[in-house]
Amino acid sequence: MAHVRWIAAAESGGHQGESRYGRACEGPVAARPPGGFCSTTHRPDPGQLPLRPASPGRSPTWTGGAIMANQTGVGRGDGVSPKNADSRLAGKVALVTGASKGIGAGIAREFAAAGASVVVNYASSAAGAERVVQDIQARGGTAIAVRGDVSVPADVERLFARTVDAYGRFDILVNNAGVYHAQPLETVTQQEIDRQLSVNVTGPIRTIQEALKYFGSDGGSVINIGSLDSARAVPGMSVYAATKGAVDALTRVLAAELGPRGIRVNTLAPGGVETEGIHAAGFIGSDAETDMIGRTPLGRIGQPKDLARAAVFFASDDAAWVTGEHLTASGGLRT
């Protein structure tokens, strides 16, 4: 059962997670066997991580580089393209929720590299968000960090007001913030159900609702970060899977409702992605990682940049005729 939960956590899209074997961490925390740990003070130093052994036919890969993450990473490479290498989002303003690390941070970096001014939202990790901002600025990009819990209405209002105060407009919303907890159904409490629903479902509804006040006359783009778990059956992930199924439905309905206003709504659903959280949980290099990669046709674990590139497509005019879509970015992994 622990083996199954390790895989579930690694493929949960980079959310803030918790297992029954340890306390919550900010990042996708894979359940570990008794005796495992989850500590924000014992994460590997990205600059000290060694080369990963080469797979057959592949070159060794450096696992260091800048931290990329709540859906909330340590990725291979810094996740930021050279300045001016891409201008598809030039002049746009983007808000990425849960962007202090992992997938969210990867998207924030890639958006900035494509020319957008970015708001790096965080709920608790101010230091992580500031690192992302500094990384973007060091490469000539524009970004600010703004605290806000998407489950708190007043925080959402303040988050958008701060975005428009800083940049004078608003164009792109990425609903990346999320939480999960892997546990058998009979142990799930009402409090846990409410927690996941408030962040994973009510949060995106609330942020999109607030975004409607600020999108310009030419519309905008909403990208909801879903999960492979909404389409497959992983024991212990019933509540999380239900919330991500709700996100899929939200995307479909709002794409139809908001389309006449020029607002496109799409879902980007990650499979297994290498982030700080799964490094801290010991997933990387484990049998569970080997098993997951073995089930992935493209033969490797995903990187935040893999999701970030797809997000740039959805946010850009390249996807001007694309709405209501669900894109699974998982290297071909489906079950």
| Number of continuous helical runs | 10
Report the sheet-strand fraction: 5-15%
Q: Quaternary arrangement of the chains shown? A: single chain
Which series of helices and strands comes N to C? HEEEEEHEHEHEHHEHEHHHE
Report the count of strand segments.
11
SS-based structural class?
Answer: alpha/beta
Q: How much is the radius of gyration in Å? A: 18 Å
Overall geometry: globular
- The stretches of 5 or more residues where confidence is low (pLDDT under 50) are 1-9, 18-79
Order of strands across the main sheet: 7-6-5-8-9-10-11
Main pleated sheet: 7 strands, parallel
- Termini separation: 16 Å
Q: What number is the mean pLDDT?
A: 81
Helix content: 25-40%
Describe, in plain words, how this protein is organized in 3D.
This protein has helices at 2-10, 102-113, 126-138, 153-167, 190-200, 202-211, 238-258, 276-280, 287-294, 304-315, and strands at residues 17-19, 22-25, 51-52, 61-62, 93-96, 117-122, 142-147, 172-175, 220-225, 263-270, 326-329. With 335 residues, it is α/β, with parallel strands linked by helices. Helix 2 (102-113) crosses helix 10 (304-315). The strands form three sheets. A seven-stranded parallel β-sheet has the order 7-6-5-8-9-10-11, with helices on both faces. It has a two-stranded antiparallel ribbon with strand order 1-2. Strands 3-4 form a two-stranded antiparallel sheet. It is globular, with a radius of gyration of 18 Å. Helix 3 (126-138) links the parallel strand 6 (117-122) and strand 7 (142-147). The two termini are 16 Å apart. Helices cover 35% and strands 15% of the residues.
